[in-house]
Amino acid sequence: MVVDIYVDADGCPVRDECIKVARRHDLKLYIVSDGGIRPVNDKRIELVIVSPGMDAADRWIADHIGCNDIVVTADIPLAADCIKSGAVALKPNGDTLNETNIGPALGTRDLMANLRETGEITGGPSPFNRQHRSRFLSALEVAVQTALRCSKNLSL
């Protein structure tokens, strides 16, 4: 069983970190976007350009991700779809989403969207910073190590 990493790349601030970890572990990395991203000269790293449109990258990832894979996304509904497939979801700030916490995350997302629609909340998330990047890199490394151990155990 192979472990792949999928990056919802439109607006993702941690693409370089994903590339570094994928190279370190010799993993396949899919960078999925609707354009505007330069290809990486590495046979393990595949740039997937989807047609422009709402959630096109999300649909591609959800259709291709499998059990024990890892998705990097800030999109909570995409994370939920991937978790249903047995994948682990990481947000760019290092938060891990799984079957235990995805329900509350979806609920909070919906609540915040409703509050924004009524004008109650006008701000967004805190700016991405160095601590988020460091936390993400650590969380991705842990997720990869766990997935590789699980994959090894399943193949025995």
Number of domain units: 1
CATH topology: Rossmann fold
Give the biggest sheet: 6 strands, mixed
The helix count comes to: 5
Can you describe what's shown?
By secondary structure, the protein is α/β, with parallel strands linked by helices. It is 46% helix and 15% strand. The chain has one domain: Rossmann fold. Helix 1 (15-25) runs parallel beside helix 5 (130-155). The protein starts with a strand and ends with a helix.
Q: What is the topological layout?
A:
Elements: E1 4-8, H1 15-25, E2 28-33, E3 45-49, H2 56-64, E4 70-72, H3 76-84, E5 88-90, E6 96-97, H4 102-117, H5 130-155
Parallel strand pairs: 1-2, 1-4, 2-3, 4-5
Antiparallel strand pairs: 5-6
What's this model, at a glance?
The chain is an alpha/beta fold and 156 residues long. 46% of the residues lie in helices and 15% in strands. It has a single domain (4-155), classed as Rossmann fold, CATH 3.40.50.
Which key phrases capture this entry?
5 helices; globular; alpha/beta; Rossmann fold; six-stranded mixed sheet; 46% helix
